[in-house]
Amino acid sequence: MDRIDISIIIVNYRARGLVRECIKGIKQLHTKLRLEIIVVDNSPHEGVGEMLAERFSNVHYLPQDRNIGFAAGNNAGIRIAQGKYIMLLNYDITPLPGSFDYLHAYLENNPAVGMVGPQLINPNGTIQHSYYRFHSFLTPVYRRLWIGRFGFGKRHLDRFLMADMDTTSPVDVDWLLGACLMVRASSIKTVGMMDERFFLYFEDTDWCRRFWKAKLPVRYVPGARMVHLHRRESAKGGGILSLTHKTTRIHVISWLKYILKWHMYGRRAS
């Protein structure tokens, strides 16, 4: 059996149509890479399994008996993945031609790099922010409240968003948005899988931090481009009012878990 180049893991939760379109986009890529697609279904009673059996019968389907969360869902896929490289891919992403090949070639040619992420773009063609420095204790406060628009808060957020860096070419970053991450399967054996204490949010930040701790650099690679239909669910309502939303409360809980786990705020773990 030919070796799989990339195992693509998609975690679904109530997004049957987006999962269908995401896989359709992958299938339409003209690539010589050997791919496998694994769909971990956190809402298996909404017809995703039936859709896959009818339209994409060679996709591995892993239904869960409940919503186990993003980190645990990706870990379930990682456990059965056969690829040399593992790609975690959100179902709301459409890969553009050449994007998989570019990331694959980049890791092949840069063996010291641990993780890469592509440039994400909005449906209207504008660049989406997907790379960051590590949070300090106040970063989420500045991002949610009006004080982040002025003075020290704005300077703080500019640094968090790496506004001082040239990101038109590959650059090391503290962490990448988990919408699309690509790593070596061998690196996961060193670093470990995602921390399942994070049900949703901060699992990507934590994983990147652990890659840095293992001396496996995390790199933003803008030569690979993908369209991301990004919705900041945790920011609905804005400010204090956003706390009335379930996703915001989950985000805050994950932030507190992250703070308790990592004490060196704003710095790479050593």
Descriptive account of the structure:
The chain has 270 residues and is of the alpha/beta class. The protein has one domain: Spore Coat Polysaccharide Biosynthesis Protein SpsA, Chain A (Alpha-Beta Complex), CATH 3.90.550.10. Helices cover 34% and strands 21% of the residues. Strands 1, 2, 3, 4, 5, 6, 7, 9, 11 and 12 form a ten-stranded mixed sheet that branches. The relative contact order is 0.16. The C terminus is likely disordered.
Properties at a glance:
34% helix, alpha/beta, 270 residues, single chain, 10-stranded mixed beta sheet, 12 strands
Distance between the termini: 41 Å
Number of domains: 1
The DSSP helix count reads 9
Q: What is the fourth-level CATH superfamily?
A: Spore Coat Polysaccharide Biosynthesis Protein SpsA, Chain A
The percent range for helix content is 25-40%
Tell me the total number of β-strands: 12
SSE arrangement, N to C: EHEHEHEEHEEEHHEEEHHEH
Radius of gyration based on Cα positions: 18 Å
Secondary structure topology:
Blueprint: E1 6-12, H1 16-27, E2 35-41, H2 48-55, E3 60-63, H3 70-80, E4 85-89, E5 93-95, H4 99-109, E6 115-121, E7 127-128, E8 131-132, H5 139-144, H6 151-160, E9 171-172, E10 175-176, E11 180-184, H7 185-191, H8 203-213, E12 218-228, H9 246-261
Parallel strand pairs: 1-2, 1-4, 2-3, 6-12
Antiparallel strand pairs: 4-11, 5-12, 6-7, 6-11, 8-10, 9-12
